[in-house]
Amino acid sequence: MFARYAGLPTGGPGGPGGALTTHMLNSDPPRHTRLRRLVQQAFTQRRVTSLRPGIEARVTALLDALDGPDVPDVPGEVDLIDRCMLAD
Prior knowledge:
Elements: H1 18-21, H2 31-42, H3 45-65, H4 80-84
């Protein structure tokens, strides 16, 4: 189903804004097709496989940091963006 018919937000007044609604997954052909071709070139199986060790190492380090001595032992949710600075 095309995005324009799926009832997805459009970024109008009160909506989430253009940056959140005009991405590849919320685009219709021919824009979606053009963007998908670009992404496919960057994310081949070989490339994704080569990224795995680094991603696993980073996730392990981030999870280990959540269990450090400076982390209060309080049950509940953890804000990973705030706690681990995931945004580079």
